[in-house]
Amino acid sequence: MKNRLGYILFYVILLLIQVVLSDFVNIGPYIYLCCLPLLVLYLPLDQHPVVSMLLAFLLGLTVDILCDGIPGLNAAAAVALAAVRRPLYSAFFTRDSLDRALIPTIQEVGILRHANLIFSSLAVYFIVYICLDAVGMESLTTTLLRLALSCIANLVLILALDFFMLNTRE
Amino acid sequence: MTGRSAFARIVVSVLVFIALEILCLAMITNSSVVQRYRIVGAIREAQSYIWEKSGNIRTYFSLSKENEALLQENESLRQRLGLYEAMAAMPDDAFRDLDGVYNYTSAEVIKSTRGKQHNYLLINKGSRQGIAENMGVVTSNGVVGIVDAVSDNYAYVISFLNTERSISARLTKSNHFGLLRWEGVNPHKATLTEMSLYCGAAVGDSVATSGHSNIFPADIPIGVISQVKTVSGLYLSLDIDLFQDFSSLRHVYVVARNDLEEIEALEEKEEQK
User: Fold this and answer.
1) Of the spans A5-9, A38-42, A123-127, which averages the highest pLDDT?
2) Which tops the pLDDT comparison, B35 or B95?
3) Interchain CB contacts (distance < 8 Å): A and B
4) What is the domain partition of chain B in residue ranges?
5) What is the dihedral of CA A169, A108, A155, A157, to 10 degrees?
6) A79, A129, A130: which to substitute to probe chain B, counting the most B Cβ within 10 Å?
7) Which letter does DSSP use for residue B243 in this model?
8) What would the pLDDT profile of B111-122 be if each residue is shown by its tens digit?
């Protein structure tokens, strides 16, 4: 994924997967399957945070429109994730790996560290998403259950996708 | 990256983040009724909280003005209290007027006569103290006289004990009024004449000023009826025992109607027609 065309192809595929997940996969009210966090996480690390947030906003809005959701819901969560993306990377990865401006692979950093990053990112994303989606209509228990289940389900999904993309990247 | 550019980068990032989130919220509220209701409600609640707090802050900073206004009000009330206290401390012959129609100036009698047909008094207040001709002189016990001439610091008062003067007086019980005149004999007695046969006057009834003249206020007590006489079968003549003892007269009040000029101008205008 070192060339731009490969990057675009990677995002197009993920967007299509997201559309399929949103429109055709329904596994209950507590789990929202979503690969958009992965799209945001894999934006180039060396670009300005403002650019990352703008790209995340456009990606989120695209998903909202394509998946016939509430416009702005995924966009708001994606922007929030883009805003904290760099600190999250800094928390889990060494500076050396980040300076290369490449997303560290599972093989480079290990599955546990990588899973921590993904889970933390998902937590940020779904906190914003579920809070805006529920806006106080659900009980705290329901909200937390929904948050936990969505994070776990999407962790599995993203790790699987990441593993697949890892092979693609290599 | 220098510290300043890093700071600018953070600030710009935060501003863009806030702007994008606001844009997202706007889109969400415009697309979903439920989200609109809840989010706008939360925003309104936050606004109310901020307004309440800012209102408290404004109130705090306006306390100095409020305090100043209270001080002024307090000063005004203290002045009024002092006035009432001064009036309460007046001697028994002092006179009180709370409605503000009449203005009272205290004075001291420095000379008076009682043994003549045309008695007079001299008081120690004159034009410099606001005394003018045709002002009334009273005490709480009755009418004393009318100012006839003034100098800078003294006034010449024609006493009620003057056979050529009369004042308007009324029965406090029935409000019938007539002319009260001193007969020139007894300084403790006067005569209320031209009273209606049906006024219901009886011995012991009290008499006070009627307030029909521009000189004396109404309801200054004058005396009580000591005798009721019928004159030629047409009207009553009442002998009055005066409250005012002219032999012990010392403190008096010169009374002036505040709106006298206006009344006189009106009367003059009517006379010219």
Assistant:
1) A123-127
2) B35
3) 64
4) 13-61, 102-271
5) 30
6) A79
7) S
8) 888 888 888 888
Structural tokens at position A159: 């790790």
Query: Parallel, antiparallel, or unpaired: how do β-strands B177-181 and B221-231 relate?
Result: unpaired
Chain B contacts in chain A segment 5-44 (CB below 8 A): none
Contact B38 A71 (CB under 8 A): no
Class of the CATH-defined domain B102-271: mainly beta
Asked whether B105 and B253 are in contact (CB, 8 A), the reply is: yes
Pairing mode, if any, of strands B221-231 and B102-112? unpaired
pTM above 0.80, yes or no: no
Backbone angles phi, psi at B74, to 5 degrees: -65, -40
List of residues 6+ apart from B247 with CB closer than 8 A: B114, B187
Which of B10, B14, B20 has the most A C-beta neighbours within 10 Å, making it the best mutation to test the interface with A? B20
Among B4-13, B120-129, B182-191, whose mean pLDDT is lowest? B4-13
Contact flag A135-B16 (C-beta cutoff 8 Å): no
pLDDT in tens, B134-184: 899 988 778 999 998 888 888 999 999 988 888 999 998 888 889 999 988
